[in-house]
Amino acid sequence: MMQPNLDLLIPAYVREFEPYIPSKPDAELKKLYRCDRLLRLNNNENPLGPPPGAQEVICKFSPPSGAVYPSGDSYYLRREIAAIHGIDPDQVLVGNGANEVITFVIKAFCEQGDNIITADKTFAVYEWVATFSGIEARVIPLVREGFDDRGMLRAIDHRTKILFVCNPNNPTGTYWSRKILTDFLDAVDGRQIVVIDEAYFEFVEAADYPDGIALIRQYPNVVVFRTFSKMYGLAALRIGYLAGNPDVVDMIRRTCVVYSVNAIAQEAARAALQDDTGHIRRTRELVAESKAFLCEELSKMGLPLIAGEGNYLIVRLPGSDTLAYRKLMREGVMIRPMTGFRYPDHIRVSLARLEAMEVFVGALKKILS
Amino acid sequence: MNTNSKRIVCLNLQALPAYLPIVTQTVASSAGVFGLGKADCLSLELAVEEIFQYLCNSACPGNELKIECLDGIYYTQATFRFSASGMNLRGLNIAPSVTFNYEGECDLSEMGLLLASRSVDHLHVTIEKGNLVSLSVVKEKTYPRISDDLPLPETSGEIRLETPDPERLKQFCLLVGNHYSEQERPSFFDHPGKVVDMVAGGDYQCLVAMNPRKAVVGGILYFSRTEKIVQCYGPYFFQTDQGTDTGAALLDACLSRIARGRALGLLSISGLPHGLEANFEPLGDLNHYRDDVTPIKRSLFYRHLHEDPGGEVWSHAGLLEYLERAYERLVLARDIRIIRDMSETRAGYSLFAADVNRERSEVTLRPLLPGADFSANVERHIRFLSEERFRNLFFELDLGVPWHAELIPVIIARGFKPEIVLPFAGQSDLVVFQYHDAAES
Q1: Cross-chain Cβ contact A18/B278 below 8 Å
Q2: pLDDT in tens, A199-231
Q3: Whether A323 contacts chain B with CB within 8 A
Q4: What SS3 class is residue B399?
Q5: Both B349 and B400 in a single domain?
Q6: ipTM value > 0.95
């Protein structure tokens, strides 16, 4: 059989895109780096796991139910989300992680020749999905580690379809206040879709931090992303959602793949939202304690920090972050090197239990000594 | 005519001697239109004539050929593509199995590639997807050497980084020429017009740092050496008080530009300015031999751009110790697998690609096809290339390709020494071996 001519079959923007290679499973990494245990401080997971109710759902899932398709559009979960936010269930779309809803939105609004606007140092998936879909991604440099509202507005042209704002920003933890956000939305004036990615919403306690979903009524061009992977500890189940104006969501629904969210994820997410055991409070306390510890220790080491909102912070190292990654792996500690986020020589560390933070600090001291 | 950013003229024909005038005239005319000078056009034409005759008479007589003439702005490249199926690829070795007659003279018709390489700047042979052989010759334009002394730019104030216009790019080149030694900069910086064309052609990118009065105070030039490796020259800076900060800012900007692209690593082969060593990982040194003077030591530095996913590499037992030391020093997670000879039958003739760089008196050999004649083929290449006065011979083996490891004992026995492990530069890491003539070492 003749080999297909991939040069002819594949669009150049796909062919030239470098696929992201996720890290190998822990067992493989431990073997390769010859370490006995591996502390994952690279993905901003919640060390407490899911809330108790969600854990119960996972434990009680009946194996024979594995043969049955889940609700194709996460029927009950959308109702739960809608009830919490006082919106209609049809204003919500659930996806296989927030990454999938990013794809839905770009596919719904963009065609070749269009562009999206975001920041240069932010969550990479907006830029990736746009690029491998043949859409130009305009990345605006951060200003004082935060999204540059004016720079983004200046970059808009007649082919701009979506502006992505990561609030708070991953990896810097900076956020737009309600005033900055509404001024920005006023300036956009409904001409483009504004996506507010609130993956770390539940970690932010600042009084002036805005709730994007509450702005949808006033700004029908706003689409908000939330995830269950971070605060709710359901990263393994891959579930996230978007919320927006009914007409906007009705359009996005056309590019949405139904049945992509599994049954356990839907049920566990519902249970997580119904949690009344103080899961969010406990997590926030853990994050606050670890952040205080880490800030103090790293400052004592003379390392500059970028520590904002969210369950992570960034440390500037005196040398290559990717080399530090490899050296820390040998010590059994996995962090995120930031060159790929366009922060060379920086690493991002997830704020986990104090014991994990102590191990990280010890390992960092060792590799820098 | 392809009217993309790079202009290409294509010919589709058969490898028949009767077509020689079409081939040479097309290449010569194209090169002339692309701006190559008369003498350079003639050199390229000669090389193309040698190759075409060689293909017609020896390598693939009568076969379908595609010939592309590409305008690279600062060079013209002629590429021959043809199917490798059914042909004896042995003849594509730059040092083929030339037959000697009783008088000790060799058959010149078998020396097509070697003869072609004499009149051009570069010659490359590769096997592409679809079992296509790609044979390219490159002739660069001749540019004037310019070494004007420029005043040192003022040092105070905040710097700004940007892609330079041609005039600032030329200033940058002149300043590099003024302030950096030959060991620290490639020779093209002495030809600023060439660098402008290198950037205009899209092969190279440049960032310069400017002071508040828009004077160039530093810069970095970089290009994709392979799909996975970006190579940089610099960062260079021309101040003393803020120099390291300028260099660090240029390096950061370069890294930020390439960090989400295809490259896995950034390589520097021209040394690093003081203060930036911690941003790179030292790979080791290579010697650059010249005819009449002591060799220049080239230190190679590497900067990985992503997380190391780890992986397996293939080696021969004879290189195990070297690799273990290298990976330990580079902190790379590798599972080293040793190949074993179990007396299996080996047949056929091996083929080595030869990247010829006349200006640097340098040839880099890479195995393309395995064969039963490794030892003889290596020996032949060393002999021919030494006779051709190439002073710098390298062999690159890809540790991701198990059969490459079979060459390790062969090339070590013939005088090559492992010098550098270049992470992720091939299917896996590459080991660069350098030939050390017994008389020199």
Answers
A1: no
A2: 999 999 999 999 999 999 999 999 999 999 999
A3: yes
A4: coil
A5: yes
A6: no
